[in-house]
Design brief:
Helix content: 25-40%
Largest sheet: 13 strands, mixed
Number of strands: 13
CATH topology of the largest domain: Aminopeptidase
InterPro entries: Acyl_CoA_acyltransferase, BioF2-like_GNAT_dom, PEP-CTERM_FemAB-rel, PG_Glycine_Bridge_Synth
Protein name: FemAB-related protein (PEP-CTERM system-associated)
Order of helices and strands: EHHEEEEHEEHHEHHEEEHHEHEHH
Distance between the termini: 27 Å
Number of domains: 2
Shape: globular
CATH superfamily of the largest domain: Gcn5-related N-acetyltransferase (GNAT)
Strand content: 25-35%
Number of helices: 12
Structural class: alpha+beta
Radius of gyration: 21 Å
CATH class of the largest domain: Alpha Beta
């Protein structure tokens, strides 16, 4: 235990491999209105196992053992990008989950102590409240809106220009979808996703990460793939949490733009999510001013700023921003790599991004 600044509470390092502790952690996350998929043990342990970045699960606990706040921290380690404690790694959210300012301060201080113990590492919080004295920054926007009542209403919610593109995909009899969690879908999703991120100049995540998330989330995760006849052209792996669907790892091959299959995959996901009882569609984050952000806005979603926070004792911060000048030549070269080569070395690089 680490001392806090409220006499009735202590910060405890929880063992999420122990069933009772994991159950208590998840119960708090599921009950909290700001809990996200990235606070859940399924995400935290899946990331740790698949990327070899261990998770430190800090909880503020009262005398009765009741949890009143959480902070998961992955120790992300990379020879290229350096090290950091990240909450949560590879996530768009997952920062401090607590309401009481004193609890937030305790968890922040515990993170600082852990960072010093690990060699004065920087700490990066993806979302959540900003601790006093930490640096806040906003480089991303997030997109979410309620799902419409039915497919027709959903179609009408898409602005006219983008709706016309979607109608072309709906009228294409060669396009069809499959939804599920089976091996074929995993394989076809990864084929599409890896080509998509290679074309953007980004190293792909290990396929094991996607498998671990699917396995650990169970029915709260699935894959939808759009096929042109038998060829996978667009695909997305989605998470379901608190009445919201979040398409998370997705993309399309080069032909997806011509086929408008990216429009189709998200429209069909909306209908699938509605049938599952979801009420919100969370389109996730995009970089401010990016083409991806403009595309989501043209789909009928309004951007909202996403605030992150950092702290580091040694004045060192990781530079993992793909817009950084020092990475531009590498990104241009990566786009030209043969896909098998990119898929071979990409996972080794991406597991250190966090």
């Amino acid at each position: 235990m680490m001392a806090g600044n409220r006499a009735d509470l202590a910060i405890v390092a929880m063992d999420l491999s122990e069933e009772a502790q994991a159950r208590g952690w998840d119960a708090f996350v599921m009950a909290h209105p700001r809990g996200t998929p990235f606070h859940r043990t399924a995400w935290l342990t899946g990331v740790a196992v698949a990327t070899a970045n261990p998770c430190h699960a800090l909880a503020a606990v009262g005398p009765s053992g009741r949890i009143v706040g959480l902070l998961p921290l992955h120790h992300v380690q990379s020879r290229i990008f350096g090290q950091a404690l990240v909450s949560s790694a590879f996530a768009v959210d997952g920062g401090i989950l607590a309401d009481d300012p004193a609890v937030i301060a305790m968890l922040a201080h515990a993170a600082q102590d852990l960072a010093r113990d690990k060699g004065d590492l920087p700490v990066e919080l993806h979302g959540g409240p900003g601790p006093e004295g930490w640096e806040g920054y906003s480089e991303h926007v997030t997109f979410a809106r309620p799902l419409a009542a039915d497919d027709e209403a959903e179609l009408k919610a898409v602005p006219r220009k983008h709706r016309a593109e979607l109608r072309k995909a709906l009228a294409n009899d060669a396009l069809h979808i499959r939804i599920g969690r089976d091996e074929r879908l995993i394989r076809d999703h990864y084929r599409v996703y890896s080509e998509s991120v290679r074309n953007l100049g980004t190293p792909v995540f290990p396929v094991r990460l996607l498998r671990e998330i699917l396995d650990r989330f169970g029915e709260d995760a699935d894959i939808i793939v759009v096929y042109e006849r038998e060829r996978p052209v667009s695909a997305v792996l989605s998470l379901y949490h608190g009445g919201a669907v979040m398409p998370y790892w997705g993309g399309g091959i080069h032909d997806a733009r011509r086929l408008r299959s990216n429009e189709l995959v998200y429209y069909r996901l909306m209908g699938h999510a509605r049938a599952r009882g979801m009420t919100m569609f969370d389109f996730g984050r995009s970089k401010l001013g990016s083409g991806q952000a403009s595309w989501k806005k043209s789909f009928g979603f309004e951007p909202q700023p996403l605030l992150y926070h950092t702290w580091n004792a040694a004045g060192r911060a990781r530079d993992i921003d793909p817009r950084s000048a020092k990475y531009q030549r590498r990104i241009d070269l990566w786009k030209k790599l043969p896909l098998p080569v990119a898929n071979l070395i990409g996972p080794w690089i991406s597991r250190g991004l966090g």
